[in-house]
Amino acid sequence: MAKSADEVADAMFQLVEQAQGVKKLKAMDLTKSMIEMFGDEVDKKLCKLAIKQLIDSGKCVYTYFGGSYIEIPHREAAAND
């Protein structure tokens, strides 16, 4: 049974959350991990849609340090005042 974009987005978010502070993940890293995890139930198109959902919802953001990475938004110290 094919996975929905929501299920894939949730799995991607968990990966990003686990990697936070340890490793920066690129979109292709997430796509490869999902294909590895779910096999034929996902494809690149579905992964792209799931990444778009994460970015549009604000759960994740693109950052750029010599390459584009997907991360959980950082909380600025001033934002906590």
Describe it for me?
The protein is mainly alpha-helical. The protein has one domain (5-80): Winged helix-like DNA-binding domain superfamily/Winged helix DNA-binding domain (Arc Repressor Mutant, subunit A), CATH 1.10.10.10. Helix content is 51%, strand content 10%. The protein has a two-stranded antiparallel sheet with strand order 1-2. β1 and β2 (68-71) form a beta hairpin. α1 (5-19) packs across α2, α1 (5-19) packs across α3 (44-57) and α2 crosses α3. The model has no long low-confidence stretch (mean pLDDT 91).
Q: What is the CATH top level name? A: Mainly Alpha
Strand order of the largest sheet: 1-2
Name of the CATH architecture: Orthogonal Bundle
Which consecutive residue ranges, at least 5 long each, have pLDDT under 50? none
Tally of separate domains: 1
The share of residues in helices is 40-55%
The share of residues in extended strands comes to 5-15%
Gross morphology is globular
Radius of gyration: 13 Å
Report the major sheet: 2 strands, antiparallel
